[in-house]
Amino acid sequence: MEFETKAIHEGQQSDPQTGAVIVPIYLTSTYQQEAIGQHKGYEYSRTGNPTRNALEEALAAIESATFGLAFASGLAATTTVLSLLKSGDHIVAGDDLYGGTYRLLERVVKNWSVTTTYVDIDDINNFENAIQSNTKLIWIETPTNPLLKIIDIAALASIARQRNIILVVDNTFASPYFQRPLELGADIVVHSTTKYLGGHSDVIGGAVVTSNEQLYTELKFYQNAIGAVPSPFDSWLVLRGIKTLAVRMREHEKNALFLAKFLEEHPQVEQIYYPGLPNHPQHQLAKAQMSGFGGMISLELKGGFAEVEKFASRLKLFLLAESLGGVESLLCYPAKMTHGSLPDAERYKRGINDNLIRLSVGIENVLDLQADLENALS
Ligand code: P1T
C-alpha cells in the first residue's frame, strides 16, 4: 500500500457496530469487564483506548514501523524514550536540536545521573569519537531545529549498531511523508505530532514508533507506568491530521522552495538555511535520504535584533508564534522563543545568532506569502 492510502486507511476501519466511516472518539476512562480478568482488550484508558489505538496503528504504518505509541506531547514521548536509560548511562546527542529537548536532558534527565555529550553534527565522526563505554543512546534530529542541518541516518545507524547503541531520530521536521528513519536503520523514531502530523495548530501530541519488539515492550510499559498519554479527542485530531499529511506536505514544500529561492536572492538576507537549495552544505545527502525537503526555512537578516523586531512587526500573514507544521505560516525567533532555555554562550556556540529567524511556511497562496515577506523586508 502506498503512503497516501496507508495514512487514510491503516488502523481506521469502519466501526463494526454502526458502520461509521470515521473512528469514534471513545470518551471513556474505563471498560466494563465480563468477569474478573475477562475483558474485550481494554481495561483502563491510560493503558489503552480504541481511538488512541487507531492512531498508534496509523503512526506505525506511515513510519514503516511495526509498533506505534501515542503521547500527550512531543516531550512526553521524548521523556518516555529516555526512561529506557538507567543511572550512569550516557547519551550522545547532536548539538542542534529543539531547545526543550536540551532543557529536558540538562535539567531533568541529568538529575537521574544520565549525562549527555553534544557533538557538532557537521562531521559524523564526532558521534563516533564521543561514544563512551556507558553510551546507551544516540539522539538526533534531522533536519535539525532550527538550523536545518542534515545528518546521514544510515551511516549513524551503522555506527550505533556495531556498538549496540540505540539510535533515536526525532523526525518532526521532515514528517514521515518525506523521511522514514527506520527504513535507514534507526531503532526508534520520535515525533512532536503537534506539528505536521496534527497539521492544524490545534493539538499538542507526541509519538514513538519502532520495529524492535523488545524496545516496544519496554516503551509500552513506560507509556502506561509514566502515564503521559493523549486524550481520546487529541488522538482523534492527530488521526484526522494524518489523513491529509501527504497533500499538505507537498504544498508546504512547494511554497518553502519558492520562498527559499526568493529569500536567497534578497539583499536584506545575509544567510539562508534550506536543505532544498543546491548551496546547502548537505543538499546531496538530503536529496538521498529524504523524498522532499520540507516546509521549514531559517534565515539570518542583515543587522541584528532591531532589524528582526522591525521585520517581525511588519509581517501580516506570517504570525509571530512558537511551533510549526500547521497550515498557517509562522515566524519564530529562536533566541528568545524555542531556544530561549539555552544559555547565551551555548546558543552562540551552536550558531543560533541574534539575527536568526525561523519560518514555518504554510499552505497559503505562495504569492501572498512572498508579498508579505517582501513588504516586511523592504
Ligand atoms: O511541543 P511538543 O509537542 O512537546 O514537542 C517538542 C518537540 C520535539 N521535537 C522537536 C523537533 C520539536 O520541534 C518540538 C517542539 N518544537 C517547537 C514547539 C518549536 O517551535 O520548535
Structural class: alpha/beta
Which word captures the global form?
globular
Rg, nearest Å: 21 Å
Sheet having the most strands: 7 strands, mixed
CATH architecture type of the largest domain: 3-Layer(aba) Sandwich
CA distance, first residue to last residue: 48 Å
What is the number of strand segments? Answer: 12
**Major sheet: order of its strands?**
1-7-6-5-4-2-3
- Total of helices: 14
Uncertain runs are none
Under CATH at level 1, the class of the largest domain stands as Alpha Beta
- The overall number of domains is 2
Order of helices and strands: HHEHEHEHEHEHEEHHHEHEHEEHEH
Small molecules bound: ligand P1T
Beta-strand residue fraction: 15-25%
The named CATH superfamily of the largest domain: Type I PLP-dependent aspartate aminotransferase-like (Major domain)
Helix content: 25-40%
CATH third-tier fold name of the largest domain: Aspartate Aminotransferase, domain 2
What number is the mean pLDDT?
97
